[in-house]
């Protein structure tokens, strides 16, 4: 059985949209290469440190939209009805992977947190509510974004499982969390060495 072309197109769209380096483009518009500042990451946290809260907020929203829009498109095209529920899982994973591993930047992108936020806002707002609460509490207490981000990411598949969501949703949550954790591996090393910077 050949793959459904609409589902393939939706997955490709998710990756390509996810791979747009919003933080890098915005910083370059201000004559700054964010990859040479702070942590060198192109995501909202490093943009905030480099260019301020306003720029960071813009990047956060646009990076989240990179996850939300493909999920909305997949729903509108009834990708699950065409190719099975796991096709939607692949759309979500593709959006997050596009942000983290953009072909345009030699697969060196962001951490995936904001794009995953957009994916799960559409997929399961309840899971995102739990993750956001965990993020906010830890950030307020520790002021370390990486700890809050990793905890929030891990909370999503756990929450989906506890709420009895379908296996394909839990699989997406687990895949998204795994990507986020991999992208935070250097942060984890700095945490263990006591060198991770607070916000």
Summed up, what is this model?
This protein has helices spanning 5-18, 22-28, 44-51, 53-76, 79-83, 85-100, 113-123, 125-142, 145-162, 167-183, 185-193.
Number of helices: 11
pLDDT averaged over residues: 95
General shape: globular
| Number of self-contained structural domains | 1
Q: How far from one another are the termini? A: 50 Å
User: Order of helices and strands, N to C?
Assistant: HHHHHHHHHHH
Please outline the major beta sheet.
none
Low-confidence stretches: none
Percent helix among the residues?
A: over 70%
Proportion in β-strands: under 5%
Number of strands: 0
CA-based gyration radius? 16 Å
Helix/strand structural class: mainly alpha
Primary descriptors:
about 200 residues; mainly alpha; 11 helices; about 75% helix; globular
Per-chain topology:
Layout: H1 5-18, H2 22-28, H3 44-51, H4 53-76, H5 79-83, H6 85-100, H7 113-123, H8 125-142, H9 145-162, H10 167-183, H11 185-193
Description:
The protein is an all-alpha fold and 199 residues long. The chain has one domain (5-193). It is built from eleven helices and no strands. The chain has helices spanning 5-18, 22-28, 44-51, 53-76, 79-83, 85-100, 113-123, 125-142, 145-162, 167-183, 185-193. The chain is 74% helix and 0% strand.
């Amino acid at each position: 059985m050949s793959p459904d072309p609409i589902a393939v197109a939706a997955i490709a769209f998710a990756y390509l949209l996810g791979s747009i380096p919003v933080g890098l483009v915005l910083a370059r518009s201000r004559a700054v290469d964010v990859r040479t500042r702070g942590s060198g990451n192109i995501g909202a946290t490093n943009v905030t440190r480099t260019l301020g809260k306003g720029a960071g907020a813009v990047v956060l929203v646009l990076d989240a939209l990179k996850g939300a829009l493909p999920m909305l498109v997949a729903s509108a095209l009834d990708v699950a009805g065409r190719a099975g529920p796991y096709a939607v899982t692949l759309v979500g994973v593709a959006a997050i992977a596009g942000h983290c591993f953009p072909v345009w930047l030699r697969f060196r992108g962001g951490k995936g947190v904001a794009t995953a936020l957009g994916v799960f806002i559409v997929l399961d707002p309840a899971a995102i509510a739990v993750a956001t609460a965990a993020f906010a509490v830890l950030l307020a207490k520790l002021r370390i974004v990486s700890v809050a981000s990793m905890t929030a990411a891990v909370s999503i598949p756990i929450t989906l499982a506890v709420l009895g969501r379908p296996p394909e949703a839990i699989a997406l949550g687990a895949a998204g969390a795994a990507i986020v954790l991999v992208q935070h591996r250097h942060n984890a090393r700095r945490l263990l060495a006591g060198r991770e910077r607070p916000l």
